[in-house]
Design a protein that fits this description.
8 strands; single chain; 6% strand; disordered N terminus; 448 residues; mainly alpha
Length: 448
């Protein structure tokens, strides 16, 4: 027995000695380590690609305001929303910022030709600015994070940056990187949807208008005019580029079709959340039909102008026909009203039933809590599974840039010329299928 024990002991010691001679400092096989990554432009592109799937997308954002309502109350409408919160509007954005900062930091030690990755670094910086914007527009003062953090980083316990600093960082970042991005017309077919110069400038225009008007009416800073001038200049540069135009591919119903499958790759989209068959998909066509995407409120319905007069419904000379019959409320209104709200009795198509007629009943699909039924975003491809839609979500459209130009000009100067109106808001009003009366200073003066 002792001899047996001794032999076993010698055998085990031999095994341990052999194991001790082997190199056990091995690279992980389930995750590509930094030593093997960050070597080519393709590596940087792959890392940036993650950020595209983290953008805003289809949802019920209007239900956070008084122009829309979901089938049930949400945390905004019932007053329970706070930061940090469970829906990710706060915490998820810091995941995005970390991803942006890692890409930017890794580029600083890139051993290849920096020109090969410059575009993708600019994209990461765009998303870093965009993510700060998403935080700021909801929470005002937020931390400005321009480096990836560790568990020992003091920033983990730091205070929020004042809104002014956040605004200035976003605007300066977008100005610095826009020229490093391609123009829309320079994208290959397989690159459609990637960030462009126009996207950076359009986002700058949006942020500058927000910051300028917030400063003008809330006085968190005194230089609102220069912010509004930044909005004007950025919007004008997008317009002057000639890269974008309003969608007119579906004739008189182009506005409605812009937001479903027919509007994919439209020249009106400047920045969007992209979807692809069998790669990244959503279920919006069915959820709008079911009523799960929220429904317009009466306030929203009343905001559509009367088409013939160009006046709001409350104006005595508007020609509004009243609410006695359903058809009266929709008659002679801005055509975008009947391309957004499905009028009871109207024939339409949906992805679940195909041809259909809209019922006025609240609990018959499209289900509603307000009496108004949403049509916008409702896809028409009959027979698709409920989670197999691939139409894109437009985050920034050319129409918004035109409106930013008009609003920023008026807020900055207290007036806007007819010529400026014709270059901005009247382009939107005259889009195919809308053709609302043009807005002029004389029209405003006559109808005060």
């Amino acid at each position: 027995m002792k001899k047996y024990i001794l032999s076993t002991t010698v055998f085990m010691v031999t095994l341990l000695t052999i194991a001790g001679c082997q190199d056990i400092d091995l690279l992980p096989k389930d995750n590509l380590p930094d030593q093997l990554f960050w070597k080519t432009p393709a590596d940087y592109m792959k890392e940036v690609n993650t950020l595209y799937s983290r953008t805003e997308t289809f949802g019920t954002k209007d239900a956070d305001s008084d122009i829309g309502y979901e089938l049930n109350s949400n945390s905004t409408s019932n007053g329970t929303f706070s930061a940090p919160n469970s829906d990710g509007d706060w915490s998820d954005r810091f995941v995005d910022l970390r991803q942006c900062n890692i890409i930017i930091e890794k580029s600083e030690s890139y051993e290849g030709d920096f020109a090969g990755i410059e575009r993708y670094v600019a994209e990461a910086r765009f998303f870093r600015a965009y993510t700060h914007w998403r935080l700021m527009q909801k929470f005002n003062d937020v931390p400005v994070l321009i480096k990836s953090l560790t568990v020992e980083s003091p920033e983990l316990y730091g205070s929020r940056s004042p809104q002014k600093e956040v605004e200035d960082f976003i605007l300066s970042e977008l100005e610095a990187i826009h020229a490093k991005l391609p123009k829309q017309s320079e994208l290959r077919a397989d690159e459609l949807g990637r960030v462009t110069q126009g996207a950076a400038l359009a986002l700058k225009a949006r942020v500058a208008l927000f910051a300028g008007t917030w400063a003008k009416y809330h006085q968190h800073r005194q230089d609102y005019q220069q912010l509004l001038e930044q909005a004007v200049q950025a919007a004008q540069r997008v317009i002057d580029s000639g890269e974008y135009s309003l969608f007119a591919g579906e004739g008189q119903e182009s506005y409605r079709y812009l937001f479903i499958d027919e509007g994919e790759n439209a020249a009106e989209e400047i920045f969007g959340s992209r979807y692809y068959d069998d790669i990244r998909m959503h279920g919006t066509a069915h959820s709008v039909f079911w009523g799960w995407r929220g429904t317009p409120a009466r306030k929203m319905a009343d905001m559509y102008l009367c088409k013939t007069s160009g006046l709001p419904v409350e104006h005595p000379a508007s020609g509004f026909r009243g609410y006695e019959r359903i058809a009266d409320e929709f008659a002679d209104r801005d055509p975008r009203m009947t391309q957004t709200i499905l009028m009871p009795g109207a024939s339409y198509r949906n992805a679940q039933h195909g041809p259909d007629i809209c019922s006025s009943k609240f609990t018959t699909r499209p289900e509603t809590r307000t009496g108004y039924k949403l049509w916008k975003f409702m896809g028409e491809f009959f027979g698709k599974p409920s989670n197999k839609d691939s139409c894109d979500y437009h985050i920034i459209r050319y129409a918004e840039v035109l409106l930013i130009l008009a609003e920023a000009t008026f807020e900055k100067d207290g007036r806007i010329s007819d010529e400026a109106l014709d270059r901005s808001i009247n382009v939107v009003r005259s889009r195919t299928g809308v053709e609302m009366p043009p807005l002029t200073n004389q029209f405003v003066q006559d109808n005060r």
